[in-house]
Amino acid sequence: MPTITLIGLSLFEVATNYSAGQWYIALLTTALICIFSQYMKNIDVPCFIYKKGSGCTKTSLSLFKMFPLLIAIFISWLFCYILTITDVFPKEKDKWGYAARTDIYTDVLEKSAWFRFPYPGQWGVPSVSAAGVMGIFAGVLASIIQSFGDYYACAWMAGAPPPPVPAINRGIGMEGITCFLAGAWGAASGNSSYSENIGAIGVTKTASRRVIQVGAFVMIIHGCLGKFGALFVTIPQPVIGGMFFIVFGMVSSVGISNLRNVSLDSSRNLFVIGTSLLLGLALPMWIQKNPGMINTGSSEFDQMLSALLGTNMLVGGFLGFFLDNTLPGTDEERGMSYWKRMREQTSSIKSQELKVYNLPACFQRQIDKVHCFIFLPFCPGYNSYFSSAIKRICKCCKTKKGAKFTVNENKGNDNLESNLKNVQLKEII
């Protein structure tokens, strides 16, 4: 729970900094998203579509349910544009409200090329250094930990079962491949899971992989169109900040929802939750504000330690894991009994549901034909093969122990019955 919850809570400062330039615009964006996604989600907008053979037909679309973020951002963006051309917002950079102007980055739009295709080595020959590798390695570890929480939060938000080990391995592996490609193409940062998209899934109720794939293709095309990409730079920061309040809040609520099966009347659980959340926020904040306080004599190790201790999800998640597994508590109190019952009752159903994490059908059929793929940790059959083998071994051990216990118990019952018969005979005599 702390790992997923801290994904959203740790980003509240980002949302605050974006919104600080014009709080009225940020609150307007937040209010519009709230109205469209919650109050107007069941309102259908009538429209006409053309079908071959039947002509124009009237239908309805749930626009407010499907596109609450886009509609809210467009309205706030248009409102900021009107207030900009009418000089309602100040032109001086040091005055409050300047950040809401839409003409701050117009020079970026003017200087951007209409078409630009990136290629490897466009910024020169890549260089590798030990200090750079160690620093990036620490950031990669922190990113992996955050991705774990993102995967589980996204699965819960999409109504899918928790991702199995092969799916997580594939996700982390693809992040590594894309980071390598990003470095080869000269990108300024690596690629990782994006927590804001989880909140967008919760608001729009759209979790289809087809939608994500089409969106990725559109983003690749727009990345080559410089003018179109630069157009989105003109969106004022307060508008983005208002959207962040919604999406970050949705991510945090996913983590809190994991407490639904935990006893919140227990002081033990309250201690674990409160301590892990508070320290997960406090220690990384102190690390960020005091970058030179960690000094072990090795600059590379200092960078790695600072990156790890500066990750909210790592600090809070590790502390919560340690306290929950070391402090005494019953399975019912910790919520473990609920998950055990669910695992026993829905084992067959879950095996069917986990097929959503399989590879595309054309690849999955070929993988199923080659049995050696079950030994690869990123193939779908890996987890099911080893887990079933372990279950069979445990079942055999339990059967043997149960048989021994049954024999001993029967022998004990026979001895008890014979003793009772002897006592009864003695009393009769």
UniProtKB/TrEMBL annotation:
Could you tell me which species this protein originates from?
Answer: Acanthosepion pharaonis
Q: Which InterPro entries match?
A: NCS2, Xan_ur_permease
Q: List membrane-spanning regions.
A: 20-40, 61-84, 123-145, 214-233, 239-257, 269-287, 307-327
| PANTHER family noted in UniProt | XANTHINE-URACIL / VITAMIN C PERMEASE FAMILY MEMBER
Q: Where in the cell is it found?
A: Membrane
| Alphabetical keyword list | Membrane, Transmembrane, Transmembrane helix, Transport
Official protein name in the record: SLC23A1
GO CC terms in record: plasma membrane
In the record, the note on similarity to other proteins reads: Belongs to the nucleobase:cation symporter-2 (NCS2) (TC 2.A.40) family.
Chain coiled-coil ranges: none
Instruction: State any single GO MF term.
Output: transmembrane transporter activity
In Pfam terms, one family for this protein is Xan_ur_permease
State the annotated membrane topology for this chain: Multi-pass membrane protein
